[in-house]
Amino acid sequence: MTMQNNQKRMRVYFTGVGGQGTLTATTLLARTALEAGLEVVAGEVHGMAQRGGVVESVMLLGGWRSPKLDLGEADVMLGFEPLETLRGLPYLKKGGAVFSSSDPMPPVSVSLGKAEYPAMNRIKASVCEVAGVCHFIPCRELGIQAGSVQSGNTVLLSAVCASGVLPFGVDALEEAIKKFLPAKLQEVNLKALELGKTALKG
């Protein structure tokens, strides 16, 4: 890693649904960046309660003072649920990178029949109109394949690390998993990491 890449300023936006572990994933990626020698600021985005269970957080790399993100500023978006990826699109910088789960977790309004879940091809088309890099990955499905649906988050983190858009790679994420996750969770998350790398290539 060159010093120039190491000092690159970058904003990463995370969005998902309550209970998915979005904040845990944010913390793991922030710790990965810290271990890679980067300056990191991370935190929740305010206002999630008013948005009906949506969980949003940010990670800023390269010397920011506070975890603040305005519309159109995110270089990278990680969407742990496809509809929330679509809803979070205004935060993405034109030509930014999007890595999203393609496995829907319909909100309560859809479950109650008060709203319709948009077709996946429409979600993908809308996202790829804005994003310069656009990947949709079956994270829940691959998490289950690894041994735990929650490890689907690691699938997504692995894919973004493997893509080269961040100033650190999958090796750094692997080391962070081994260092920061409880021993009983490491094996399944390391399997998910491998599945994430493979999914990106596919």
UniProtKB/TrEMBL annotation:
Keyword terms: Oxidoreductase, Pyruvate
Gene Ontology MF terms: indolepyruvate ferredoxin oxidoreductase activity
Domain Pyruvate/ketoisovalerate oxidoreductase catalytic, first and last residues per copy: 18-196
A Pfam family that the UniProt record links to this protein: POR
E.C. code: 1.2.7.8
Source species, domain of life: Bacteria
Entry protein name: Indolepyruvate ferredoxin oxidoreductase beta subunit
Organism, as annotated: Desulfovibrio intestinalis
Taxonomy of the source species: Bacteria, Pseudomonadati, Thermodesulfobacteriota, Desulfovibrionia, Desulfovibrionales
